[in-house]
User: Which sequence fits this backbone?
């Protein structure tokens, strides 16, 4: 994960969802912006103050986002519909 020019981590970059290995017809109706929002909310549920921790402990925050991207991907791929 590369850092932003001012040496801070981009939340937008960290929360970018992974591409599913397989797709279902309803997947095309779910925008990546929504999936990204879900990833940020999963991180926030575990670490409510992650924004302030990014500067002090970037590797931990990057690892947390990586885990939540993987979790979101599993949920997205295993869901039967978008509801």
Assistant:
């Amino acid at each position: 994960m590369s850092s932003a020019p001012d040496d801070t981590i981009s939340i937008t970059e960290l929360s970018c969802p992974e591409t599913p290995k397989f797709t279902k017809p309803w997947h095309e109706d779910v925008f990546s912006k929504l999936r990204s929002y879900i990833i940020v909310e999963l991180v926030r549920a575990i670490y409510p103050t992650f924004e302030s921790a990014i500067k002090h402990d970037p590797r931990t925050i990057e690892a947390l986002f990586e885990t939540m991207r993987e979790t979101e991907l599993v949920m997205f791929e295993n869901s039967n519909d978008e509801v």
